[in-house]
# Entry
Amino acid sequence: MTGSRARSASLGGHASIAPLVAALVALFAVPRQELRPARTCATCGQAVPIAQVAQPTGAEQLVAASAKLEFARSLEGRARLTQRLGAIDDLRAVRVLHPGDEASAGAAAVLAARELRALDLLDEATVELEFALALDADGPQASGWRLELADLERRRGEVAAAVASYAACAQDAGLDETDRAHARLWSGRLSLGLGRRDEGEKILIALAYDAADPVRSVQAFDELALSDVAAHDLGRAAGWIDACRRRHETTAARATPTGDRVRRALMRMRGLVELRCALFDQGPLESDEW
# Structure
């Protein structure tokens, strides 16, 4: 018996339903782009085929991709990873399927960048943010995207570029005080790391004394103390810690949310820990003041 006859016989005389099945499949099939192995699974190394369903508009495409991302985040294990990567490709597809909708394409790129950053895929995240900025460099959210790019430069080890980016963000009126303080702190911190001591200290001293958020002020004092401990100038390091305590002791004594935050920041000062260790290395401490 030939193969085709054997298959017909195995169906028990019901081969005639094949045309009906084909018709049903065609009726309920959803138009898709061609499947493509867009990703390699980080766990098993196998190609993961991704497909985007074309939506009528860019906004609807963005909504569908965002929903897929939210669903992916609810999963566990390998499925969570592969579905998140698939959702990122769906977000990227917004600009491919709807090239005239720059608003949706930019919003999708930012969402993709943030998810890629969470996955520690920093190079790809940078590409997405740069794409969004190219579409809307002067928009209301552009300043925040530039700060995110500065953070990515820092995490990628591009320290000099990050210092320049943070310095620009520190002067950007499009950012609020909290974000500008974040940029100032990292600008000063990284400048010290590059050996630009005078520049870094100038930035951090200004932040220590004029930061609207007292916790940022404590962090700036802490960086100054750490720098001096590293330079073996323990007396100067102790001076920064003492100045920090005196500046914030009143706020720290208050039974308020801000007081709690400041107390925790003072207790977590790494400069104080490093100073104590350095003083101990010089000999037994005569008191617990440091």
Summary: The first strand starts at residue 36 and ends at 40. The chain is about 70% helix and 5% strand. Residues 38-134 form one domain. The longest helix spans residues 77-97.
